[in-house]
Design goal:
mainly alpha; 315 residues; 11 helices; 4% strand
């Protein structure tokens, strides 16, 4: 009952994401998507199934735009682009460690106060995650691959449909420009968002080919029936899941900051100092840590380890 609604919502939201992508390549996986009563969970499940093989070491088949075997590489970005997000990951891991010690020291007021102020410096003080990175200018128009796709579509429709197709494209581009301006303002207000966006903005794909990991029978049937997925939709699905996980990280970190401020208020009250409790803070940070781990799971493990090594030397 909910499946058409969820599918339409994914396509509408994803069309703006794909316009951010340049030369693209994606690994595509197929699986049935059992739907729940939670639309957000449904979108996340569908997107996870679509790109679940994006970092797989091997694939069942590689399909190019011409439906010929081709060499393909998973979505990637330069290691330097991953450093800001890696600093976020390390910060969250450290915060979880300190919050765990805060919970263990709940009966020791002096230690609790020290842990709270350590977390204050970590979570409430600017960390400059994007240090050393070159600023990315806000693009004035969508990616060439998106414009080319729409040009191909307009050529394929009848004369009567061409004006409508042009209006739809203009409307989507205008909405994309508004979203880009709004997102830049959000990045200025939240350095974690800016750090995670810096990586996704630098992701490269190959729009001519993607990896199809359906079963042999399903692959054959899709090829015979000319039902191979549109590359633009595949890319949007990949980016969509990354943004959903990013939002999970941001929400959990915002909630953790609010809880930390509350605990600091209690700690400042001499009469309430012995009631400081870090369990809720720890739980929220663990949610952020799990979401961050899932976000990094979409990136090649070798790249993640290399970025961790680089950032670890900064300390």
């Amino acid at each position: 009952m909910h499946q058409p609604v969820v599918t339409v919502a994914i396509i509408i939201a994803a069309i703006f994401i794909v316009m951010l992508t340049f030369s693209t390549q994606v690994v595509f996986a197929f699986a049935p998507a059992p739907l729940s009563s939670n639309p957000t969970s449904d979108r996340r499940y569908v997107l996870q199934q679509i790109i679940s093989a994006s970092t797989a070491a091997s694939a069942v088949a590689i399909i190019s735009a011409k439906k010929e075997p081709a060499l393909a590489v998973a979505p990637f970005a330069p290691i330097d682009a991953l450093l800001p997000a890696t600093r976020v990951k390390i910060m969250i891991d450290r915060a979880v460690d300190i919050a765990s010690k805060l919970v263990d020291a709940r009966d020791n007021v002096e230690i609790s106060q020290g842990m709270l102020h350590y977390l204050e410096n970590l979570l409430l003080t600017p960390q400059n995650f994007n240090r050393g990175t070159a600023p990315i200018e806000v693009p004035t128009q969508p990616a060439k691959s998106y414009l080319d796709a729409y040009a191909d579509y307009r050529r394929s429709v009848s004369i009567l449909e061409k004006p409508g197709a042009l209006l739809v494209q203009k409307g989507e581009i205008d909405a994309w420009k508004r979203l880009k301006r709004q997102e830049r303002l959000r990045e200025d207000a939240d350095e974690i968002r800016a750090a995670l966006n810096y990586y996704t903005t630098n992701i490269n794909f190959n729009s001519d080919k993607f990896i199809l990991t359906a079963s042999k029978d399903e692959r054959s049937k899709m090829i015979r029936e000319d039902r191979i997925p549109d590359v633009k939709t595949v890319i949007a699905s990949d980016m969509g899941l990354r943004y959903l996980l990013r939002n999970d990280i941001l929400t959990a970190c915002d909630d953790a900051r609010a809880e930390l401020k509350y605990q600091l208020t209690k700690e400042a009250d001499a009469n309430a100092a012995d009631t400081v409790d870090g369990q809720e803070l720890l739980d929220l940070l663990l949610v952020a840590q799990r979401a961050c781990s899932k976000w990094f799971d979409l990136i090649d493990e070798k790249n993640v380890q290399e970025a961790l090594l680089v950032v670890s030397k900064e300390d």
